[in-house]
Amino acid sequence: MFANTQRSREATMVERLDISTPHCEVVRDGPVVTVVMDRPEARNALSTDMLVGMADAFGYIDAEPGVRVGILTGAGGVFCAGADLKGMGTPSEDERVRRRAAEIENFHWKGLLREARPGKPLVSAVEGPAVAGGTELVAGTDVRIAAEGAVLGLYEARRGLFPMGGCAVRIPRQLPYAHAMEMLLTGRSYTAREAAAIGLVTRVVPDGTALAEARAVAESIAACGPLAVQAILRVHRETEGLPEAEALKVSDAHGWQVMASADAEEGARAFAEKRPPVFTGE
């Protein structure tokens, strides 16, 4: 699945990172890290092994200077069916995962992207079911590619539960109010086309191609100036709910730093010289 690839700009070696766990495969390919929820026999239902791996992966994406973007997807043609209602809280059988679960504060919230979201973009590649906690994970990403056969929805209210991954707050901020309330209060399913129509996902692609499309998007992001990309994310997150005048002050503070960077000079120089820019994040 993750064979070595030759890019036009450089050759890169695909590397399986040692933060992978029995239910979470973490693979780096140059500036792109792909996080694969890997429990297809349980429709990639969330487990301790998975959430610990995801928490570590998102922390790695955030902290590693050479990483510019992450991809989140699921194995076996399934994104994520949410929490494992039968086995919630069951400790891992893996000694390293048990140790990391004790070391990472709120590993479950970090794995669910409720807390400590990376300061770098995340692209989700959604095939099959992405329901309950799966939809909450999608809502924690920045660009969302869904296959035609994907199914999304926040089922919690139907089961007498609550969307603890943050979607009671995020969905009304991300979607028009009436659509957000219908999704939250009815707990109904949404096709990929319906999800795109209300703005929950970015675009819909043929089944089996979501990951390839997400990789293409990730490559496009990785080719941009990393300081600019990360500043745009920070400004969005730091200004939610602020009046425009206050938000613009935050935007200017980050924006002028980017404009004064070596990357900004390189972008202008490359444009004048009619060549691709070589950004260093400086």
Automatic annotation (TrEMBL):
Assigned EC number: 4.2.1.17
First and last residue of the signal peptide: none
MF term (GO), any: enoyl-CoA hydratase activity
Entries under SUPFAM superfamilies matching the protein: ClpP/crotonase
Gene3D superfamilies with a match to the protein in the record: 2-enoyl-CoA Hydratase, Chain A, domain 1, Lyase 2-enoyl-coa Hydratase, Chain A, domain 2
Keyword flag DNA-binding: no
Coiled coil: none
Enzyme class: lyase
GO terms (BP aspect): fatty acid beta-oxidation
Entry keyword set: Lipid metabolism, Lyase
Family to which this protein belongs: Belongs to the enoyl-CoA hydratase/isomerase family.
PANTHER family (UniProt xref): (7AS)-7A-METHYL-1,5-DIOXO-2,3,5,6,7,7A-HEXAHYDRO-1H-INDENE-CARBOXYL-COA HYDROLASE (PTHR11941:SF169), ENOYL-COA HYDRATASE-RELATED (PTHR11941)
Name of this protein: Enoyl-CoA hydratase
